[in-house]
Amino acid sequence: xxxxxxxxxxxxxxxxxxxxxxxxxxxxxxxxxxxxxxxxxxxxxxxxxxxxxxxxxxxxxxxxxxxxxxxxxxxxxxxxxxxxxxxxxxxxxxxxxxxxxxxxxxxxxxxxxxxxxxxxxxxxxxxxxxxxxxxxxxxxxxxxxxxxxxxxxxxxxxxxxxxxxxxxxxxxxxxxxxxxxxxxxxxxxxxxxxxxxxxxxxxxxxxxxxxxxxxxxxxxxxxxxxxxxxxxxxxxxxxxxxxxxxxxxxxxxxxxxxxxxxxxxxxxxxxxxxxxxxxxxxxxxxxxxxxxxxxxxxxxxxxxxxxxxxxxxxxxxxxxxxxxxxxxxxxxxxxxxxxxxxxxxxxxxxxxxxxxxxxxxxxxxxxxxxxxxxxxxxxxxxxxxxxxxxxxxxxxxxxxxxxxxxxxxxxxxxxxxxxxxxxxxxxxxxxxxxxxxxxxxxxxxxxxxxxxxxxxxxxxxxxxxxxxxxxxxxxxxxxxxxxxxxxxxxxxxx
Length: 494
Ligand code: CS2
Prior knowledge:
binds D-mannonic acid, 2 domains, Rossmann fold, N-(1-d-carboxylethyl)-l-norvaline Dehydrogenase, domain 2, six-stranded parallel sheet, three-stranded mixed sheet
């Protein structure tokens, strides 16, 4: 089938039942720049903005920026940046065309356009989903990594910045030198206290360049924290083909996601903002309890399922969630080890939240690869699992199942599966893992000790705490000798 390409001109021809923007996207002005326009942004903040525009209007079109690849720009630009959001669940599929993204730029070949948008007075909000490693920070401490090659580069050549922190600081300097208007930077990555974290990183970088700039930023720019939640696997060629057939138009950039969506935003803006609350977002004074709940329950269970589930032979999360032992592991971990560490936000029922998580993970209509979640574990473990470990150690509570999850990560990043087949480990520290694995052979103690000594992940405290390292080494030994399925079975029967 050679259907016409989705665009303003063809939108009216989309299949009946496909929801369209409730406003005129062709007349929408840009007011938000988003750094890191991947599938998650398009299935989350762009939808909230689309709904807010339909309800309350405003000049809140989004200019999405890709930092590393031209792919999203090349897919979206020829179709007026329209794309389909495809919500899938056992109950069926719902499609809607989203109009809030008005422009997509690739930093690699449109740097001047990116600079112009970031510095424009009309840009009142910059949002970010650049993944954990995109912040060039040390995961264990949240401090800027001044030895990171991109940070080293950007301090010398700010107007050719490669890092997000360098690029933002360049833009802030530019804004200060021209109109001086306030701006709100909204971090939407799965990091704890993500607004304060970004504020600290920008401050450290700006201070290294020009303390007066850092002081101006502190007075003028807001960095609200947010908690974002929606499961959005990478779009596949099959997803695209199925969507084209159902839409009756060719869309090279659909996003496929679950029905669940949540956005909790700290109500601390330096500027006006879209009416996101009319789209279902929660504006609150304190995001921290929501963040730790989500990171320690959802993301931690996700990571545990990704490492241990992959090792047990499962390609997708819903397959892991179909194993009674894995569900028992998640139930026990969340109830015994995570819940006691949480400050529960008013009105939230944690037991119901955890039950909903089981259903969300089990959604067979949403094939989410274990390898996708397994990526960048060095950047994810601290806030997802090690924060729970520290809280429990401080209170004298058990860390047994968190240690199993960490051991699962260690076994995975060794780079070979339970049948001796290679695993492609995708992580900024992958080469460190490989040399530790080579240096320690099959000895679980030496291998675990080698990884535990990586202070950007484990800090200086955990490697010396036998209450944590003991179970980690024991579980790692079990994973080596018995495999993940048997080890998980033993853990839940203990
Ligand atoms: C996942 C998250 O890839 C991952 O590490 O745990 O992307 C997860 O799907 C989202 O945070 C859900 O909101």
